[in-house]
């Protein structure tokens, strides 16, 4: 079902792209190459490139955004002031003589500088760094039995906007830090907007939203020096999570490979909370939302993540934009775990209102209900990705929140934060936030009011505006009408307390640990050892070791050894939960779409088969990148990366074609490895590329004289090294092995 839907959506996008492409005029002269001079002839502003054409954003009144005069921008051929007066010079201030002082009366200067001075808005207090994309969601109709929401019905297509993010870092921080990732989706449904504001981790640090400022203050940089940026490897974070042990489950996910995703395209998403849903018959159920990436869940290695922080801090953004531009559209299946809506709101002993607990998929399978395909990059980062405002209270008929104390606080926080971030209460009028349905909300005035409301009676009841707008459903037809789903409120006295079922902070953390493969466990040990090793306070390290002792003895003792501290005994009786294999990322094969394959070539070497390999890589939906000693072309093929600009971290696999590239004089080759053939002459940058690709467990293929490079890098005869007589044969085997993301056996060696 998912494959068919994906192909249908992609087919339609391809048709649209073909429509947009300029038809070639037979016999037309080749276009002039662009001039290096600044253009002087006036012309209409450049239209967005075809890949930048976002799905039409309709306004609140249902019009195409382009047709709405209030949002028109940048249409005039000539430069104007913001009030539309044409200008003939924006390069010189108005001065009293050429060498004289600037005059206060220069209103163009003042308008230009004043606007510039106010270009920035406050960044999000959390999730400040993000990347967005437009998409389309198609329902399978399989949710009908539990949820009547219109966008889940079979074949219904709903435009979406997704924003992925890190949590702790500022807007300019690196993408690949160890952190939770946000996965927020706005569905512009026919019944109004539905926002699913989730993360890539199914549990949260805290059980009650009142603790949110505490966990965020602990994770953010220290208030005195404002370091470290975008990371949890510091005292205040570990101080908090070791004292506030309900955070241990989320923290374990952060220390696992889930904390350093390979790409937003290979990341799961979770709604975290339990939601209450209702079907057309009025029956209710409890559900948890899941996003499953079509490309599988995959992560970076820690060394890759660190290298990328310097080499390409925009790695995840770039990856998302490039994949969409290349037509390798990221796709995610939406799934539901469904539980009976019982009075206790407990499933098999798991309290569904406790957001630090998840329900293993083996106990409640994730049932697919629709597919989202991301089909277009934003046209303008600020207008769309920065100004998009999500809110867990943006719910549609058939979906409601539960009494989970975390979501209850979120219901308040998301509107409140936009008031300072977007400067007033009218943020839902910003194009990216507008519903695609019509609105009639009787909300009036306020900062940044764009609507010119008519009528005299924005109140109810009224007679002066003919009683408009009317209450929906008054005629008994409740289709498309939102109502809170009736639920009995627990009786009791007002208390600041939580149920005893929230007290178990360790059993699911241990379950997660026991569900990991040996390689993943090793990564977790190293992550804890690194992060605690960056703390200064001995007591914090000791306290966290105590928490680890309550999770697993080996985990605790190995981290303790790394820190040079004794491993404490557990303070609780460890349980033996069933492992949940679905939590591990290792073992499955996934489609290759959008993977990056680096092909190292030598202009003087044997280029036989390189062009075929390039086309075959492309044909398999992957991205071939030719890497040569210089830019331009080699053998008639465009070079995308040079030895100076390529680095192993960008590639999912490396192919070595033709002869080894001799080191230029300026870069002395490394010493040949003992016993290696004539390898001393191989360019050291290529050797480094191969060494790193090997260390990061990527598949490496070589044919012909390319094999000399393997020898120079000392990576012969181990798993995931493919040699062959011809390029095609090598590529076939490389592709087979790439399906598993990495050569996992190599980690163990
Ligand atoms: Fe939150 C942003 C996800 C708990 C308060 N949150 C924000 C974003 C995501 C999440 C993905 C970025 C949205 C975007 O891209 O614009 N937050 C979560 C998840 C949580 C969670 C999955 C727990 C299950 N959040 C949470 C709590 C509170 C907040 C408990 C406050 C009581 N979150 C906010 C916020 C933000 C935000 C301060 C910052 C910017 C924004 O809302 O629009 O209001």
From TrEMBL:
Bias-annotated ranges (Pro residues)? 23-50
Give the reactions, separated by semicolons, that this protein catalyses.
Answer: 2 H2O2 = O2 + 2 H2O
Region annotation (Disordered) ranges: 15-55
What InterPro entries does the database record attribute to this sequence? Catalase, Catalase_AS, Catalase_clade2, Catalase_clade2_helical, Catalase_core, Catalase_haem_BS, Catalase_immune_responsive, Catalase_large_C
**Enzyme class, broadest EC rank:** oxidoreductase
Please provide the record's keywords in A-Z order: Heme, Hydrogen peroxide, Iron, Metal-binding, Oxidoreductase, Peroxidase
Its required cofactor(s), as named, are: heme
Heme as a keyword of this entry, yes or no, is: yes
Q: Tell me the protein family, please.
A: Belongs to the catalase family. HPII subfamily.
- Function text: Decomposes hydrogen peroxide into water and oxygen; serves to protect cells from the toxic effects of hydrogen peroxide.
Output this protein's name: Catalase
User: What organism does this protein naturally occur in?
Assistant: Nocardioides aquiterrae
GN (gene name) = catB
